[in-house]
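Hi everyone,

Forwarding the result from last night's run.
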Amino acid sequence: MATRYLRSSAVLAKQLLKCESKHKISCQSRNLSLHECDSMGLLKSAGIAVPEFRVASTKEQALEVAEELAQKGNKDVVVKAQVLAGGRGKGHFTSGLKGGVKVVYSAAEAADLADQMIGHNLITKQTGEAGRICSKVMIAERKYVRREFYFAITLDRKHAGPVLIASSQGGMNIEDVAAENPSAIITQPIDIMEGVTDAIAERVAASAGFYDDGLTQAVDTIKKLYDLFIKYDATMLEINPMAEDRKGNVLCMDCKINFDDNTEFRQKEIFALKDESQEDARDSKANAAGLNYIALDGTIGCLVNGAGLAMSTMDIIKLHGGSPANFLDVGGGATAEQVTTAFELITSDPNVNAILVNIFGGIMRCDIIAQGIIDAAQKLSLKIPIVVRLRGTRVDDAKALMAASDLKVIPCDNLDEAASMIVKLSSIVELAKDSNVKVNFELPI
């Protein structure tokens, strides 16, 4: 079972990149995230208590489901924009509406709010200025809670497995709680072979502040959440808040789940729920092509094979005063078509002034990379500087291919020299842009 948590080097590199302060990442990780309504649906199917809810994609549907909930005695409902971003409650829509989570007191209000959310972009601290489109809303019964708790399960390198995280201070930003009151955070490493026992679940729930019948319910909920985490190959499951209502019922009021994208082959039903409209277009294209791509905020495009070499290539660009525009690992089995797609991804970023290709051919053949560069030059009419460093398998064949194609690229066998050169060329192009001077670096002679 433990092998399902082994990560590929590319995914590990992405996680490292996210934590590296010197590289600002402009798109989200490729671990699958589901909308709250889908995550809550998984909880409900696992027998975990959640507020009753419905999903609406139009104003008319919102009115219908809100009336349906009202007939069951739930006149007060919560309308939640289904957008994959944190801080929805504090965000704002391009329609002018403030807040993506609203309590309303009638079906008509629910319909009116849905109309101001659906089809409009929600802008939060995590979405960037453009925001993300809201295509549907979740309408849930309003619960009156006595106490709010925090609960999560995540994978932790330090403990080499899952860790339960809990706190009596739920319903707020857990990062703020950890910073201001670290003692309020409870962590419990889990033996992957043993799982969550009654004793472990009871210890965590009691430490968080549950007692009496609430403790019994919390133990049951924690065990079911862990089973769900394992069953669906999740990398993170967060309930904020887990609450106890006025009747003493323990419920999961909100849910966020991320899934390991390496397990798509056995989690087809989960991955079928993926909302492409919430993805960066380049990230979706990279996924479809089997490329590991992350957009950064620099000006030098990078095309490299191997996550480690990609990281070191970005570091040496930084060392010479440049800034990488992306992390792009074509892997060890890339085709010429994938290399062409890689160039399309890189050049789709208007900030890219130059491209550095750094290939160490082991499994990956240099001649395939060369053919991909040739095809990309012909298809995309590339007009920016390209420095190519090729070493290893079939490197002479690769050089012969590029020479025969009359491509005007700059070959360089030394990585340090290649990095220095690409930084200078990028600076020249940037200077020309600032001076409103058009510069074309044409590959075909």
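Residues 1-29 have pLDDT under 50 and may be disordered.

Cheers,
N.
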